[in-house]
Amino acid sequence: MSQQLPPLNALRAFEAVARHLSFTKAAAELNVTRAAISHQIKFLEEFLGFPLIERHSRTLVLTKAAAAALPLLRLGFDHLTQAVALMHGERQAESITVWAAPSFASKWLVPRLHRFSRQHPDIDMKISGDVGLVDAETVAESSVVDSVFRTHEVDVMIRFGFGHYAGCRVDKLLNVSAAPLCSPALVKDVHPHPLRAPQDLAFHTLLHDDTAYVGHPRWADWLVLHGVDGINAKRGLHFNHVSLAMEAAIDGQGVLLSIKNLAQCDIEAGRLCIPFDLDMPLEQAYYVVRPPYEGVRQRAVNAFVAWLQAEASASGF
User: Fold this and answer.
1) Which DSSP symbol is given to 308?
2) What's the domain range around 28?
3) Are 63 and 70 in contact (CB under 8 A)?
4) 1 is a domain residue
5) Tens-digit pLDDT string for the chain (317 aa)
6) 268 and 119 in one domain?
7) Which class for 296: exposed (0-12), middle (13-18), buried (19 or more C-beta within 10 A)?
8) Beta carbons within 10 angstroms of residue 316's beta carbon
């Protein structure tokens, strides 16, 4: 006699929580509320008759039975995905083209894309970071967007600006702020002049992102905002792309003022840190921009936008 199986949603919720060791991240991935995830886990534990997850202060720990079952559960979901793909038969994979601000594409979007591919293996993607499509300070946002949708066959754009994209569907994705960023080596006591306060910047090289996009943060503005005197805001190393400037910061060559969201992966990996938590909120933000009409790839576009919003909500920056 076969054993009765719990609902698939409960198993999927448990797999996501076990993989992230976080109810919040699991909820973001599955595009549901944290309360819904908690309800599914509680239901599954009651169904099985024993606990699966132990809560210790702010951390989650899998029970021995849960840890033993997890690899087989993941294998089961992989087999289900393959089975559904076979049932689709000759159905062709959908494909969408996404344009993103180059810095956002390289530092925020690309490191996360594997999660979208895992959730939507039937959707192929083309990512473009063409610098010629950036919201430059000398070009009206509306005219840029109109040109992109009409001539570049783009389905979705992620743009940094004020959100003034006339005639388009616009959703704010992320509010942003800028902060000093540096290698953890520069804050350690072994450094001759460890970064403890803003005045310590006088002993370090300032790194500048001089990319020509609207609203990029400048040291001069940050120094004025926080009342730091006696430091030449123009000195140091200048770069024409934020990725180059961040690599210099990671290498310990100086202190960069940049958008915190773009540095999140490097901060979490311990390659960068924020020496003093003095942010500079920016008026601009990241926006998801779509044409006003629905195209033949609308299902794929909607899936990608929903995933983007979940990732942004879970990012915590």
Assistant:
1) H
2) 8-88
3) no
4) no
5) 446 888 889 999 999 898 888 899 889 889 899 999 999 999 999 998 889 998 887 788 899 888 888 888 877 877 787 677 666 654 556 889 998 988 899 899 999 999 999 999 989 999 987 766 555 444 455 554 556 666 667 889 998 888 888 778 899 999 999 999 999 999 998 888 999 999 999 999 999 998 877 778 999 999 999 999 989 999 999 998 888 999 999 999 999 999 999 999 999 999 999 999 899 999 999 999 988 777 667 889 999 999 999 999 887 66
6) yes
7) exposed
8) 10
CB 183 within 8 A of CB 272: yes
- What secondary structure letter does DSSP report for 271? S
Give residues with Cβ within 8 angstroms of 49, minimum separation 6. Answer: none
61 falls within a domain: yes
Q: Is 258 helix (H, G, I), strand (E, B) or coil?
A: strand
Q: For residue 205, report the phi and psi dihedrals to the nearest 5 degrees.
A: -75, 135
- Looking at the domain assignment, is residue 176 inside a domain? yes
Whether the Cβ atoms of residue 45 and residue 14 lie closer than 8 Å to each other:
no
Least Cα distance to 11 among 28, 26, 31 occurs for 26
Task: Report the alpha-carbon distance of residue 135 to residue 241 in Å, rounded.
Answer: 15
Q: Phi and psi of 215, rounded to 5°?
A: 85, 15
Residues forming beta bridges with residue 288, ordered by sequence position = 158, 171
| Residue 160 counted as domain residue | yes
User: Among residues 311, 303, 312, 305, which one has the least CA distance to residue 122?
Assistant: 303
- Per DSSP bridges, beta strands 59-62 and 169-181 are unpaired
User: Of 161, 160, 179, which is closest to residue 225 (Cα–Cα)?
Assistant: 179
